[in-house]
């Protein structure tokens, strides 16, 4: 699949800049326009490239089945090159020029927050299909990725029981890492544990030698990483080369999401504990069918990761909402999606929670073994319990904020 480095558009937008959301009029005929803004290049392309491919696969599958409402779906995708300024630019372009009917996009929480208000002001329905730190409460936004209550708490629960109650936290220095670190502290304290220290790292940091020395000195029972991106991959290699992977167990809230387990040797990656919504090793018919379709369309299935699958499922969930509503009108779509619409995808059932606009998901506790994400146990339809503590869009439909846990 040829994709330009700058951006690619699978449709032409109308000319001119329309000022103000009320004046935006979307076409009632012709193709339904699905917009996407993702890092197809740049530091985060290990996440973005498969998500772009998943978007293409989902749209082609919908169209092969006859489209929606008697119309084809047209994907309009932009490469943000891991640049927040381009996220802002292309989000405005999707709303004002392209007049898309829905957007599925954003990878980091910083990118999500750079574009979410643009879509809200433009009354353009927005799906964020990536694991994140939880708490977004916005009726215009729908989340199909995991939250801390779904994928962080199971790690803490298992690790404290197996390894002990003293933990050392490493996290990316932006809102995902900062808020996830708070949830880690919260869940550890609920289990009577303690946090030896918490260290934050900008996304371009790749030298963890001094940090590893600090961890040795602190002597935790286990270490948990909420690190993100290519530069932070260096930590896992340096951790293994120092011999610490043989001395202190390691868990992660993000490892495997970008297929990091394939980039490390078994000697470097084996034993890392993770939790999430997807593993290629799942033997369900739906996952096998998905991987077969991916292989037929793109060839290599090794690059398939959790958030690529989440992107695919998010688009299918939106499509189910369109079918149920019988309309692309915002009010009709909100009513349909808030009815608890659900789809069965490669990860199992994905069901939208009306109160939080987050999905209930099957969650796997997994361990890296031989460059595979080996499933240890599965929790069916785990709800977004963290966000549900603060967000109720049925009672407060005008809410527009991100709640954070207090520690």
Helix content: 25-40%
Task: Encode the helix/strand succession as letters.
Answer: EHEHEHEEEHHEHEHEHEHHEHHHEEEEHE
Q: Assign the structural class, choosing from mainly alpha, mainly beta, alpha/beta, alpha+beta, or little secondary structure.
A: alpha/beta
Strand content: 15-25%
Main sheet overview: 5 strands, parallel
Total number of strands = 16
Q: Do you know the CATH architecture of the largest domain?
A: 3-Layer(aba) Sandwich
Intertermini distance: 46 Å
Unreliable runs: 1-23
Strand order of the largest sheet: 2-1-3-4-6
What best-fitting shape do the alpha-carbon axes yield? Answer: globular
Classified by CATH, the class of the largest domain is Alpha Beta
Mean pLDDT: 92
* Count of domains: 2
CATH superfamily of the largest domain: Response regulator
- Number of helices, where a helix is a run of at least 4 consecutive DSSP H or I residues: 14
Rg, Cα atoms, Å: 21 Å
Description of the structure:
By secondary structure, the chain is of the alpha/beta class. The chain has 2 domains: 21-146 and 281-362 and 381-402, Rossmann fold; 153-252, Response regulator (Rossmann fold). It is built from 14 helices and 16 strands. A hairpin with a 2-residue loop joins strand 14 and strand 15 (372-382). It is globular, with a radius of gyration of 21 Å.
């Amino acid at each position: 699949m040829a994709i330009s480095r700058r951006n690619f558009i699978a449709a032409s937008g109308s000319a001119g800049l329309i000022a103000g959301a009320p004046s935006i009029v979307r076409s009632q005929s012709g193709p339904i326009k699905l917009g996407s803004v993702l890092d197809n290049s740049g530091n985060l392309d290990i996440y973005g490239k498969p998500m772009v491919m998943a978007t293409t696969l989902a749209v082609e599958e919908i169209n092969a089945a006859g489209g929606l409402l008697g119309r084809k779906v047209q994907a309009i995708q932009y490469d943000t090159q891991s640049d927040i300024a381009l996220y802002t630019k292309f989000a405005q372009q999707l709303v004002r020029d392209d007049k898309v009917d829905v957007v599925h996009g954003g990878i980091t929480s910083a990118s999500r927050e750079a574009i979410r208000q643009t879509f809200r002001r433009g009354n353009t329905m927005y799906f964020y299909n990536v694991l994140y730190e939880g708490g977004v409460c916005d009726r215009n936004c729908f989340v199909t990725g995991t939250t801390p209550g779904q994928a962080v708490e199971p790690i803490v629960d298992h690790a404290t029981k197996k390894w002990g109650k003293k933990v050392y936290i490493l996290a990316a220095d932006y809102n995902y890492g900062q808020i996830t670190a708070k949830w880690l502290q919260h869940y550890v304290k609920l289990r009577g544990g303690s946090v030896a220290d918490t260290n934050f790292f900008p996304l371009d940091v790749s030298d963890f030698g001094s940090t590893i020395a600090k961890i040795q000195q602190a002597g935790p029972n286990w270490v948990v990483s909420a690190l993100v991106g290519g530069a932070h991959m260096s930590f896992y290699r340096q951790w293994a080369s120092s011999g610490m992977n043989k001395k202190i167990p390691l868990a992660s809230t993000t490892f495997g999401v970008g297929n990091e387990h394939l980039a490390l040797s078994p000697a470097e990656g084996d034993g890392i504990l993770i939790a999430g919504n997807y593993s290629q090793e799942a033997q369900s018919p739906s996952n096998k069918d998905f991987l077969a379709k991916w292989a037929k369309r793109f060839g290599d299935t090794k690059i398939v990761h959790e958030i690529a699958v989440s992107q695919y499922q998010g688009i299918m969930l939106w499509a189910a909402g369109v079918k149920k509503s019988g309309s692309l009108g915002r009010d009709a779509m909100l009513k349909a999606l808030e009815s608890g619409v659900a789809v069965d995808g490669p990860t199992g059932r994905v069901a939208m929670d009306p109160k939080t606009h987050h999905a209930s998901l099957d969650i796997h506790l997994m361990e890296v073994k031989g460059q595979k994400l080996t499933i240890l146990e599965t929790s069916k339809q785990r709800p977004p319990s963290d966000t549900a503590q603060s967000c109720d869009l049925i009672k407060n439909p005008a809410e527009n904020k991100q709640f954070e846990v207090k520690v």
